[in-house]
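User: Let's play a game. I give you a shape written as tokens, and you guess the letters that built it. Ready? Here's round one.
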């Protein structure tokens, strides 16, 4: 089975910046070809094709498949080094003197606080993709630190998922905070929504979190436990990627209810009914711990904990605690 190669090196992506080289690569993905055949396909002299082929070879994207000799004429056939390519490149600030740190995973209001508090020294950039995809991004090297709140069937938060997704990597985990999540509705709760069972009412429109998010996984598990089919919930397929966006949708009337952070609901003066308390952890590769030291040190300060405790529903008792996975 042919593999898909992920291109994340600048020189590889640079080699494909020329559309002619990209076209050569596409042709070779369908099967080996010689410079003569490629020149015929592209309408170019083989000498011009050779120049582009050398660039692709130097980038490790193509290699010689075989060499044939016909009537004294030697011809090289080239092939790609993979069956397909996935191009990944993050464009980061060049002149910024601050250390850039990429956070990925579940959306969190305390992370936004950290970004502001450390802004003078650290450029903390956030990519909210959900807890599971955040850990995947960490494994693939697309972020420095991942935030998650994944509850497994045995009642343990995050560590079973880290073991499963990064079994061969040395990781470090610390607790950011415990957070309160629940149902958020418009001020005054005009639809009289009091529990998950009310979400199946015909007059109620729901807004959900994306698949792979800790909130979505909790909801799906809970619905199964109480025997409610997701298909009965009007708006179950409606997606909000952050707690803030969800709160805004509820306040604007785009949805009657959603499940999210108490802090997000309180910020927009929404009606809130607590459902569960969860542990939110930060996971990083051991090799990045030194890079992240200023951020980890800040978590241990009273200034950080006081600011975080100001978020409704946040408990900082265990903030900064080491979690052994």
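Assistant: Ready! My guess for every position:
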């Amino acid at each position: 089975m042919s593999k898909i190669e992920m291109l994340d090196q600048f020189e590889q992506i640079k080699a494909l910046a020329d559309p002619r080289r990209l076209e050569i690569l596409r042709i070779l993905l369908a099967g080996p070809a010689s410079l003569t055949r490629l020149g015929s396909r592209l309408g170019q002299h083989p000498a011009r094709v050779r120049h582009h082929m050398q660039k692709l070879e130097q980038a490790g994207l193509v290699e010689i498949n075989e060499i044939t000799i016909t009537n004294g004429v030697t011809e090289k056939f080239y092939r790609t080094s993979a069956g397909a390519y996935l191009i990944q490149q993050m464009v980061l600030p060049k002149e910024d003197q601050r250390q850039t740190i990429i956070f990925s995973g579940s959306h969190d209001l305390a992370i936004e606080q950290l970004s502001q508090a450390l802004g003078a020294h650290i450029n903390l950039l956030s990519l909210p993709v959900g807890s599971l995809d955040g850990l995947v991004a960490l494994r693939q090297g697309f972020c420095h630190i991942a935030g998650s709140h994944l509850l497994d069937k045995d009642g343990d938060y995050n560590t079973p998922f880290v073991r499963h997704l990064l079994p061969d990597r040395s990781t470090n985990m610390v607790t950011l905070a415990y957070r309160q999540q629940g149902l958020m509705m418009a001020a005054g709760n005009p639809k009289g929504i009091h529990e998950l069972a009310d979400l199946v009412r015909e007059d109620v429109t729901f807004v959900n979190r994306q698949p792979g998010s800790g909130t979505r996984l909790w909801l799906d598990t809970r619905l199964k436990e109480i025997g409610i089919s997701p298909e009965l919930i009007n708006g179950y397929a409606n997606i909000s990627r952050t707690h803030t966006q969800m709160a805004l949708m509820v306040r604007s009337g785009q949805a009657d209810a959603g499940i999210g952070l108490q802090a997000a609901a309180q910020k927009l003066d929404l009606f809130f009914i607590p459902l569960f308390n969860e542990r939110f952890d930060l996971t990083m590769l051991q090799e990045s711990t030194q890079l992240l030291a200023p951020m980890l040190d800040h978590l241990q300060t009273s200034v950080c904990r006081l600011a975080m405790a100001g978020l409704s529903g946040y408990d900082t008792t265990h903030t900064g605690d080491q979690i052994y996975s």
